[in-house]
Design brief:
about 25% strand, about 70 residues, 4-stranded mixed β-sheet, alpha+beta
């Protein structure tokens, strides 16, 4: 799973095998995308999950940088 950088509209697109699954607005949304893919994970474990490739920034950022 790839979580792309925050979009100008807020949230981050989530992609698996090149397919966009949707937009996440927090780790709970990422956990739900993983659950739908058959992988149960506690949202508290999202940051350290080996299944997630965080692009641009880590799991603490969900909105675009106001300075950009």
């Amino acid at each position: 799973m790839v979580v792309l950088p925050p979009s100008p509209a807020g949230g981050r697109r989530v992609r698996v095998d090149g397919e966009i699954l949707g937009r996440a607005h927090g780790v709970i949304d990422v956990a739900e995308f993983l659950r739908r893919a058959g992988l149960e994970i506690d949202p508290a474990d999202i940051a350290s999950s080996p299944w997630i490739d965080w692009r641009g920034t880590g799991p603490d950022h969900w909105h675009p940088d106001p300075d950009s």
